[in-house]
Amino acid sequence: MYQFMFFLFMLTSFFLIIFIMLQEGTSIDKSYDLNSSSIFNIFNNNCNTNQFIVKITVFLSIIFFILNIVLSNLSIKHKNNIMYLNKDTNHIVHI
């Protein structure tokens, strides 16, 4: 269970980084061009692709934080169940 959740966490992290990098930002060139059409495009961006990427990024960030909380709880439980081999007695010891 812990390994599967950790795998999902890493996969979500990877895709979150990818979708953050794919987002379209406002460039400095747009801010220097002061004609009315460029100002309208800055404040009224109707690009469906960018909105879709933003929605996916929000969804992935929510999943990222939920998995982060779940993994922290699982790691506390997992830490309580750790066993190791005592070299002196050759017996398995629960920590």
From TrEMBL:
GO molecular function ontology, one term from the record: protein-transporting ATPase activity
One cellular component term from this protein's GO annotations in UniProt: plasma membrane
Name assigned to this protein: Protein-export membrane protein SecG
NCBIfam families, alphabetized: secG
InterPro entries: SecG (IPR004692)
Gene: secG
Membrane topology: Multi-pass membrane protein
Keywords assigned: Cell membrane, Membrane, Protein transport, Translocation, Transmembrane, Transmembrane helix, Transport
